[in-house]
């Protein structure tokens, strides 16, 4: 993306009421199958978004969770519809997402990050804006126009100076523990977590009295 002279910036959005829901490893449409390899951090787009030399803006049009939430946070500007919702369900799937654990506390503070990560709760668009998870919330019908305007504003700034500022923000987020995350992705808890997701049940680690029908 950074090497294309004809590309001024990138706008990321979704379809209908979904921005990015995270991958379903048993969905033939998504071509998932080998979960550990598909989730490997060497093939995910997070670093590309975080360190892009061209401006990247997200227009969060609806459900935003899993990797979609990471991408929204790492964009230069995240504009969300007032209908959007946000969630980090990785611990329900048995994944120690160290990228989340590194970035989210710096984005919204440790107390709120812990709340989101450890409970897997859903956060509304209004909460997301108040917490600093996204920078702007607009009426759903105005989302795309507002996101395009934000991207155009970014593209008018001096690229060298802009990247110096982005580099400082990148350093503020810090490095995540990739080795621990890779071990978690290949571990037994993730196998059970995704099996429970596929079978629409609570994982075996949930106490019997706390289990409930359907996916967590």
Please describe the topology of this protein.
Elements: E1 10-13, E2 18-20, H1 35-38, H2 46-50, E3 56-60, E4 63-65, H3 67-74, E5 77-81, E6 85-87, H4 98-108, H5 110-119, E7 123-124, H6 125-131, E8 136-138, H7 143-155, H8 159-173, H9 178-185, H10 188-199
Parallel strand pairs: 1-3, 2-4, 3-5, 4-6, 5-8
Antiparallel strand pairs: 6-7
Helix pairs in contact: 4-5
Largest sheet: number of strands, sense, barrel closure: 4 strands, parallel
Number of domains: 1
- Approximately what portion of the residues adopt beta-strand conformation? 5-15%
Low-pLDDT windows of residues: none
- Order of helix and strand elements from N to C terminus: EEHHEEHEEHHEHEHHHH
Mean pLDDT: 90
How many angstroms does the end-to-end distance come to?
36 Å
Question: Summed up, what is this model?
Answer:
By secondary structure, the protein is an alpha/beta fold.
Description:
The protein is globular. 43% of the residues lie in helices and 13% in strands. It contains ten helices and eight strands. The strands form two sheets. Strands 1-3-5-8 form a four-stranded parallel sheet, sandwiched between helices. It has a four-stranded mixed sheet with strand order 2-4-6-7. Helix 4 packs across helix 5. The chain has a single domain, classed as 2-enoyl-CoA Hydratase, Chain A, domain 1 (Alpha-Beta Complex), CATH 3.90.226.10. It is α/β, with parallel strands linked by helices.
Key terms for this structure?
216 residues, alpha/beta, 2-enoyl-CoA Hydratase, Chain A, domain 1, 10 helices, globular
